[in-house]
Amino acid sequence: MLLKTTHRSIGVTAISIAVGLIFILAGILKLCSEESFEMALAAYAHLGWTTAAIVARALPGLEIGTGLLLACSILGKNNIVPKIAMLGTISLSGYVIYLLVRFGNTANCQCFGDSVFISPTNSLIKNALIISALVPVSKYGKGWHFRFSKVAIGSGFLVSAVLPIIIIPLAATQPIANPNYPRPIDLNPLYSAQNKVTPVVRLDSGHHILAFLNPNCSHCRMAARKMQIMKTRDTALPFFLVIGGTESDLTQFWKETQAQNLPYSRLAAQDFMNYTHGRFPMLLGIHNGIAEMEPEYNTLTENILEQWLRR
To answer: Is 203 or 310 the better-scoring residue by pLDDT?
Structure first.
């Protein structure tokens, strides 16, 4: 009987360590691609940009914190830690079911960030296995107990949620004033026949947000993805993509950004560099041919643009 109990205790401890390592890995990979996770939360969960940014940092932090507690067999009174892990996994499974119903089985649930693509169906299978593994841990686990362990566990959860927000600061909620604007801007190079794809509207009339993007730049792709999400939320936002180069294939760019619904043009490499001076993505708020602002894509929100459009 004692041998059986010992074997069970070893097995439960091994499961706790294994699940803990999975949680740690998932949290680290999400933080390594937190911007993509933030975009997914904004696009699929319809969170505001600030809320999405906070969740994209705090949730992976909680995963890492929970994983460390499980891996170290610090399970708390009545094995509260694996029970919290089970509850969290069940809650996230509800979100994955929503993804599956609303967007089909093609969405990346971001369980392991951008590093591993996991469809909603595979994510539900993974979550079911994790929950099944946590059942014996919550029932038979003999974790490490010490004085003030309850306080330590509570503090651990709090620190793990807050620390990523400190390490990866949130972007400013308002654009920083730029003394170089307003200023007139020559948009004629965009209409040159050598660009092959030219604007079908006059960009020197009315309001436009011009986004100068290098299709091979990861931040440019992220900017295009964010503008696509914002355009879906508010179809009146006047985005226009200016994509550098005239020959490069855009298949992968459109696949990653899903921004095919945004109007765009191509721009010869030298003209592109003349506008951006090698710094991209570059966004310009244009009003009747006057560049009035140069917001950073990670600070851009619908509210900022709506205020600018009302001027």
So the answer is: 203
Rounded CA-CA distance 286/283 in Å is: 10
Cα 65 to Cα 153: distance, rounded to the nearest angstrom: 9
- What CA–CA distance (Å, rounded) separates 56 from 41? 8
Task: Please say whether the beta carbons of 171 and 56 come within 8 A.
Answer: no
Phi–psi pair at 154, nearest 5 degrees: -60, -45
DSSP string across 267-284: E-HHHHHHHHTT--SEEE
The per-residue b/e assignment along 215-225, b for 16 or more CB within 10 angstroms, e otherwise, is beeeebbbbbb
pTM of the shown model = 0.83
The length of the chain, given as a count of residues: 311
Residues 193 and 121: their CA atoms lie apart, in Å, by: 47
Residues in a beta bridge with 283: 211
Fill in the amino acid letter for 212: F
Q: Domains plus CATH for the chain? A: 2-167 (no CATH), 183-309 (3.40.30.10)
- By C-alpha distance, which of 129, 98, 115 is closest to 32? 115
User: For 39, phi and psi rounded to 5 degrees?
Assistant: -60, -40
Cβ proximity of 44 and 99 under 8 Å: yes
Q: Whole-angstrom Cα distance, residue 107 to residue 103?
A: 7
Task: Identify residue 263 by its one-letter amino acid code.
Answer: P
Residue 31 and residue 60 in contact, taking contact as beta carbons nearer than 8 Å: yes
**Residue 82 to residue 24: CA distance in whole angstroms:** 14
Tokens of 108: 């990346």
Q: 47-51, 84-88, 278-282: which has the highest mean pLDDT?
A: 84-88
In tens, the pLDDT along 85-97 reads: 999 999 999 999 9
Six token digits for residue 242: 């200016």
Distance of CA 297 to the CA centre of its chain: 13
CA dist list (Å): 113 to 52, 57, 117, 126, 270: 15, 12, 8, 15, 35
